# Entry
Amino acid sequence: MKAFHITHKGAAPALINLPQPKPAPGQLRVQIAACGLNFADLLMIKGQYQDTPEPPFTLGMEVAGTVDAVGAGVTDWHIGDRVVVFGGQGGLAEYACYDADRCLALPQTMDFATAAGFQIAYGTSHLALTHSARLRAGETLLVLGAAGGVGLTAVEIGKAMGAKVIAVARGADKLEAARAAGADHLFDSDTVDLRAEVKALGGADVVYDPVGGDLFTQALRSTNRGARVLVIGFASGDIPPIPANILLVKNISVIGFYWGGYLSLDPQALIGSMQELMRWHGEGKLAPHISHTLPLEQAAEALELLRTRKSTGKVVVTI
# Structure
């Protein structure tokens, strides 16, 4: 089978031929139809992601496809079942084996490409905003990186929860994507005095930050008393210091959020969140945005779209 693979530490990923895997007991082999890309894939290439596997490994954290073989002891799944899986690796390939308890049934209302880019982006925003920040209707949500893979879903979910949404992104095209997702106010991160503009709108009650850097500091200073600040990631490459005196004076909570960590921290919360999101999609409440779909042979070009920030929403590789 073909796989976009890292052979050893420091090596660039390359499309190579590997033996087709066989499912171990308790596993399913999935014939992969599509794989969603994430900023974490870029960090894995550099060995900088918190869950980077030891090489050799195949990139690709989340997939959708069809059960192709069933390992011993698996009784709830059958060949031909449609599944979606957060596997953490292995997705940029024609086949992969995953533990059956990490697989979810894919409803007929969702196609493979949509499903492949759905779990991490929507799961992160939904669980962060509902479970961690406890966003309430009528509050103001400030979303940084609002046109990216997770940022765009935060805009959409925040609006669905009844919040006033302020979206911050770079450039007119990305701001338009955030507007289409439901943002009430739009600011260009390259030109705005974020603290002043957000304060003029009444301040932020919840901040959703997958960017880090100076924008984090500006956003923190624009918050209201009792605000919750969600640390989602550091797409800017800059991990900001947190001035503890501001947290004290304004009773602000800064909450770190790593969606994949809930697989061990609170798997039922993660499963319940994903089930609700699947229902929302089936009811037409969500409109996933995929800006680019490329074949496996162009996986390197697909990752470059993420690295250069030329995409909005999700980039999906089809197999």
The mean pLDDT is 96. The radius of gyration is 20 Å. The first strand starts at residue 2 and ends at 6. The first helix runs from residue 39 to 46.
